[in-house]
Amino acid sequence: MKKMKKLNLLLGTLIATAALSHAVDSYSEVVGYQKLVSSQGFTTVSMPLVKPAIVTGTVSSKSGSSITLSASIPAGTDATKPYYLEVTSGTLAGERADVTVTAGSAVVVIAASSYNTSALSTLASGDSVLVRAHVTLADLDASCSPGLVGDDVNGDRVLFFVNGAFVPYMKASDGSWNEDGGLDDMSNLPMRPGIGMLIHRRAATATTLTQTGVVRANKFARPVAKGFSFFAPAYPVDLSPDAMGAKPTFGWSNGDRILPFVNGAFVNNILDTSDTTGGSYGTWYEDGGLDPLNATTLVNSQKSAMVYNNNSGAGSVETSPVAQ
User: Fold this and answer.
1) Are 242 and 283 in contact (CB under 8 A)?
2) Which has the least CB within 10 A, 109, 162, 280, 291?
């Protein structure tokens, strides 16, 4: 097994088995935690540790957006929670889609979700998949100590980047979470895998976010979206531009940017494909800097960064550092 960088502690190992048509494979899930201190002001956050799969199996059949699995959804599963499916084998390995779950062995793809990396139209019988519950805003809240402050006017906030703008959600005095100006409880809002966020800590006392969970062992598809997006690690590892796959091979182009949040501001790092000092594909420089940053960590495992891409593309498929 490969060693993890920035995985703070191995808490334990969960043993599971996956029954396939021709064999039974055993595997271990690596479980750990990582900590992040959020002081007064803004802090970028990533949530790379995931919840254990509620079901793991193969595709028995697919009809439209409905996928029948070889294994059943466990009795008592809360269907009101948000879930997503990850493809773990076949030509679509690494792709993800939001799904609804019901009693039985079928899940339904939420085709309208803009966070799906694939429509899964070519998902084939026999492909391996798993279904996980999303980490939610309530989970993030419960991971903070001292807790995030609930106040109807000055509560702590979490900000997501949606359609080119930051959308804030504030913790109310009753402990619920509301979009600024909204009344609906958004505690079940998903923390999407691979997408970052900001905590706005208004209290003077810092809070420590301790995320616990599973290190995903499967691949992770990372499409490139045109314009600004909020990038977060899919695994608890620190990332340089090289490790991010931030190169033309994966859809990045001259002038694309990575912007980590440092000392209260986003710092601009730019790809120059005409300069091969840092690598054959080009060189990453801090804006105004002279040192190549291709192999320098720009995104820590606990944090996230804005990225800007001039063009959209298929991107890369990342491999887990604990792949079996």
Assistant:
1) no
2) 280
Q: Would you state the pLDDT for residue 8? A: 37
Give whole-number Cα distances, 283 to 204, 236, 295, 296, in Å: 40, 25, 10, 11
Phi, psi angles (nearest 5°) of residue 115 = -95, -5
Domain ranges (residues) in the chain: 52-133, 140-213, 216-318
Residue 192 φ then ψ, to 5°? -65, 140
Residue type, 321: P
Residue linked to tokens 């750990």: 32
DSSP annotation of 218: S
User: Residue 136 corresponds to which tokens in the numbers above?
Assistant: 């939610």
pLDDT in tens, 22-71: 333 444 679 999 999 999 999 999 999 999 999 999 999 999 999 999 99
Q: Considering the entire predicted model, what is its pTM?
A: 0.90
Question: Which pLDDT score is estimated for 65?
Answer: 97
Task: Please state whether beta strands 165-171 and 177-179 pair in parallel, antiparallel, or not at all (unpaired).
Answer: antiparallel
The position carrying tokens 């809070």 is 207
Distance CA 222, CA 33 (A): 23
Do 209 and 36 contact (CB within 8 A), yes or no?
Answer: yes
The pLDDT of residue 324 is 59
Which residue, 194, 266, 286, 265, is CA-closest to 231? 194
Residue 310, helix vs strand vs coil: coil
Angle CA 21–17–34, to nearest 5? 135
Of 31, 81, 24, 83, nearest to 57 (Cα)? 24
